[in-house]
């Protein structure tokens, strides 16, 4: 996230910072899934059925990189909502017991960094002249926050799917941020000539 302390750092564009943050977050999401698998004894190769919990509406391959970032930001907002539901359900289940372990610390870091990434991408899109008419009120992503089935296993499976969504969307966002960063760098080089 660009803040007062790093706003004047030469050589680091807002797009590069957002990209670095997305990559860091993607790695932390993978770590969170690994910790969840260990805690819940899920096999490493488990592939749940039922499709995506978060999906994009009105997607087109001919969108600009900025438009793709905007759509991914919508998906990340849905993911944050799902993560907050997951945290609330886990805390309800735990009844406030015990100290914060590695899983809880990584989960907290993921939630905080996801919030920072949402802020960074919003600022990045606000600063760009390549965004066009993207209304912040329009939500371009759809999400399912219901648990399919009942019981403890259904809840754990839903939580597992939420973590998979986080990995998918942070990885995908990293790719589109890389494209946006490359586009803006090329544009800057042309204006510098």
UniProtKB/TrEMBL annotation:
Family annotation (InterPro entries): 4_helix_cytokine-like_core (IPR009079), Ciliary_neurotrophic_fac_CNTF (IPR000151)
Segments forming a coiled coil: none
GO annotation terms (biological process): ciliary neurotrophic factor-mediated signaling pathway; negative regulation of neuron apoptotic process
Top-rank taxon, per record: Eukaryota
GO molecular function: ciliary neurotrophic factor receptor binding
PANTHER family found in the cross-reference section: CILIARY NEUROTROPHIC FACTOR
Record protein name field: Ciliary neurotrophic factor
